[in-house]
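Quick one:
INPUT:
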C-alpha cells in the first residue's frame, strides 16, 4: 500500500519534490502555511544557519529549511515510522539532516549537545490535543540549555484558540498569522524578553 503524501518542497534546491507521509497519521504542513512560514523566515535571514524541527512528523519543515539554504537541520521525532519517513524524504530531496529519535521534551531538557552551535530558527508543531507547546517553548527559551542563538526565531504551530503565552523566558511574541484553524505564532529570542 503506498504511503500518503505530505505535500511538496515549495522552494530552493529541492523545489517540487513530493514528500511521503508517515503512516502514523501525522498532520502534514499545508503548502500555504509552509509558504508563509518560510517566506517570513527567509526575509528575516533566519535560515542562514541551523533549523530545529520539533515534533518533525514527515520532516517537511526541516527539509524546506534545508532546501532554502539552512546550513543544517535537526529533526526530533519519537515515532519510529515517522523517523523512517523523514529519512526517506531527505533521500528524495537529496539533502542531509540529523534525525533524532527521542521525545522532544526529554531531548530539549538535556540541553544542546556539546559542539553543536545554537539554532537560528525552529518550528514547534506538537499534537494539538496534548499540552506540549508551553513546556517545549519553556525549554527552548531556557538560556542554561543553550538551544537558541540571540535573535533566533521560533515558530509555534497550534490550534488558533490555544495561543501560547506572549513571553516565555527569553522568547517574546513578534507576530501571529492565522490559516483557518491553524495559527503560527512567531517568537523572537531576545535577552530583554525576561
Amino acid at each position: 500500500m503506498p504511503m500518503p503524501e505530505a505535500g511538496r518542497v515549495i522552494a530552493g534546491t529541492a523545489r517540487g519534490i513530493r514528500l511521503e507521509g508517515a503512516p502514523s497519521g501525522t498532520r502534514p504542513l499545508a503548502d500555504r502555511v509552509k509558504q508563509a512560514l518560510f517566506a517570513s523566515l527567509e526575509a528575516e535571514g533566519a535560515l542562514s544557519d541551523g533549523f530545529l524541527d520539533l515534533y518533525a512528523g514527515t520532516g517537511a519543515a526541516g527539509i524546506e529549511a534545508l532546501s532554502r539554504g539552512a546550513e543544517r537541520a535537526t529533526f526530533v521525532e519519537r515515532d519510529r515510522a515517522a523517523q523512517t519517513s523523514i529519512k526517506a524524504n531527505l533521500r528524495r530531496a537529496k539533502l542531509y539532516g540529523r534525525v533524532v529519535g527521542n521525545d522532544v521534551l526529554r531531548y530539549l531538557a538535556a540541553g544542546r549537545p556539546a559542539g553543536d552551535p545554537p539554532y537560528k530558527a525552529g518550528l514547534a508543531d506538537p499534537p494539538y490535543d496534548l499540552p506540549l507547546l508551553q513546556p517545549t517553548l519553556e525549554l527552548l527559551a531556557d538560556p542554561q540549555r543553550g538551544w537558541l542563538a540571540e535573535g533566533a526565531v521560533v515558530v509555534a504551530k497550534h490550534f488558533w484558540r490555544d495561543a501560547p503565552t506572549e513571553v516565555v523566558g527569553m522568547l517574546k511574541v513578534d507576530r501571529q498569522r492565522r490559516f483557518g484553524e491553524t495559527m503560527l505564532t512567531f517568537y523572537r529570542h531576545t535577552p530583554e524578553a525576561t
